[in-house]
Amino acid sequence: MTVQRNKSAELEGIELRQTETRPNGPTGRPLRSFDEPAPLKGHGPARIIALCNQKGGVGKTTTTISVGAALADYGRRVLAIDFDPQGALSAGLGVQTHDVPNIYDLLLGSIKDPHEAIQSTSTPGLDVIPANIDLSAAEVHLVNEVAREQILASVLRKVKDEYDVILIDCQPSLGLLTVNALTASHGVLIPLECEFFALRGVALLIETIEKVKDRLNPAIGLDGILATMYDSRTLHSREVLERVVETFGEKVFETVIGRTVKFPDASVAAAPITSFAPEHPAAEAYRQLARELISRGAVA
Ligand SMILES: Nc1ncnc2c1ncn2[C@@H]1O[C@H](COP(=O)(O)OP(=O)(O)OP(=O)(O)O)[C@@H](O)[C@H]1O
Ligand SMILES: [Mg+2]
After folding, report:
1. Ligand 1, residues 54, 55, 263, 286: which to mutate, most atoms within 8 A of Cβ?
2. 277 with 284: CB under 8 angstroms?
3. Taking the CA atoms of the chain, what radius of gyration do you get in angstroms?
4. Which ligand is nearest to the CA of 53?
5. 121 C-alpha to center of ligand 2: Å?
């Protein structure tokens, strides 16, 4: 009798455990939720993260804006650096780019104090240093500068104590500007679009990060790979993500960003998704990424 009771209890136990098991998320690992972060008692010094992929249109700028706004909503002080002459980050945050001090002036030294170039945005706690097409001349103008790879690092040193995180939105290239971003950073976040050629070029990017680590910035590390524009309805998206997880394992963020037209809509409105459509799953996805970054220690 006793044995039987124990057996059935055991079975119940198994059943219980089974109902407790969470389903797997899109990355093939059990879905986890990340706790709402505790407020910070003080601010700074910032951890600096470069959002980098030499492939165009993978979600670097969208991620910088959206996760920057989500981190600011969690009480973090965030500075976003527009490091692309296209100025998409500045436009997406609705700040002025012409006839205002910008990142190019700071790199060239025509403005010495970065505070002069910092603009606040409609999201409290999220500031930005803008860029415009002038920045496209930077690579040519900086080529003969002393320590030309370290210029951005020296600019950011002057403001890093006032922020918890600095996000650098890189242009789609591995040229001198991107090397400056990597030299200034503690971590790299690589957005990868869930499509067939996603992994092409990532090896070269990782090689570049390794070279910067060897020669210029021993402290740099890969914070993680973020799968973007994921469409769970297509086998293709699922296969690409599977391949990305096979290749990079734990480095792939558990948070995956789905494909939705809300992002281009938010860009037109020059507002982060978290305020443009706060209830949309895409806004929640970037809030989750913010919580994941905090829980991984990539952001305070
Ligand atoms: N998850 C998403 N779903 C649908 N569209 C998206 C998503 N993320 C970004 N987009 C759109 O895709 C386009 C490219 O995104 P974004 O500008 O963020 O990429 P990027 O990597 O910064 O591009 P570039 O290399 O040109 O700087 C934009 O029009 C953006 O609105
Ligand atoms: Mg961009």
Report:
1. 263
2. no
3. 21
4. 1
5. 18
Q: What is the pTM for the complete model shown?
A: 0.93
> pLDDT for 228-259, tens place per residue?
999 999 999 999 999 999 999 999 999 999 99
Give the number of the atom of ligand 1 that is nearest the alpha carbon of residue 263.
31
Ligand 1, closest atom to CA 267? 31
113-152 confidence digits (pLDDT tens): 999 999 999 999 999 999 999 999 999 999 999 999 999 9
Q: If one looks up domain 35-295 in CATH, what number appears?
A: 3.40.50.300
Q: Find, among 288, 84, 277, the residue nearest to 167 by Cα.
A: 84
Neighbours of ion ligand 2 (CB under 5 A): 60-61, 88
Short-list 199, 136, 160, CA closest to 79 = 160
Pick the closest to residue 259 from 289, 233, 223, 293 (CA basis).
233
Q: Please state the domain extents for the chain.
A: 35-295
Q: Which helix (H) or strand (E) holds 253?
A: strand 252-258
Which residues are 192's β-sheet partners?
227
Give the Å distance between the CA of 92 and the centre of ligand 2. Answer: 10
**pLDDT for the residue 172:** 98
H helix intervals, the chain: 2-20, 60-73, 88-92, 103-108, 138-142, 151-157, 176-184, 202-215, 235-248, 262-268, 273-276, 281-295
Ligand 1 neighbours (beta carbon < 6 A): 56-62, 84, 88, 172, 228-229, 257, 259-260, 263-264, 267
Q: Whose CA is nearest to atom 30 of ligand 1?
A: 264
